[in-house]
Write a structure and sequence with these properties.
The protein is mainly beta. The protein has one helix and eleven strands. The longest helix has 5 residues. The chain is globular.
């Protein structure tokens, strides 16, 4: 089981590229967060045109459930279609044209995407975030095997 607060730490050694960021208007609060995830998690994020996390703690070909968390905190993107991204797992498109603002029904509201995948031959799960419009971003990553759910 792996949980990552994508923008909170420089110790994210599994990422290839991307920039960590913090929501600058700390006096504003994230409106809703699901599954007992701390609202502060959604005030940080990793962003960039394209970036990849490689999660390395799984057995070869092991099924994995991945929960990705997002919240649109950048005011210019607080409208439908302003930030669009694709998400690939081990090279396979899993989420197409994700619009965080629309999926969360507004700004400052957390949104979770749950996807399934299979670890590769080495037990790795590579999560690639690809810009379609504006920068791709993610705040939260949780990956677990079917047995640990």
């Amino acid at each position: 089981e792996i949980t990552i607060n994508a923008g909170a730490s420089s110790e994210d050694i599994s990422i290839v590229t991307g920039t960590s960021g913090t929501f600058s208007k700390l006096s504003l609060e994230i409106k809703e967060t699901p599954n007992d995830i701390s609202p502060s998690t959604f005030k940080t994020h990793r962003w960039g045109t394209n970036f990849t996390y490689t999660l390395k703690e799984f057995a070869p070909f092991q099924p994995v459930t991945i929960v990705l968390g997002f919240a649109e905190t950048y005011a210019p993107n607080c409208a439908p279609g302003m930030r669009l991204m694709d998400i690939h797992v081990n090279g396979i498109l899993k989420v197409s044209q994700l619009d965080v603002f629309s999926a969360a029904a507004g700004c400052l509201t957390a949104h979770l995407e749950t996807i399934t995948a299979v670890a590769d031959l080495e037990g790795n799960v590579a999560l690639s975030f690809l810009r379609k419009r504006e920068n791709a971003m993610v705040s939260y990553i949780h990956a677990s095997t079917a047995m640990s759910l």
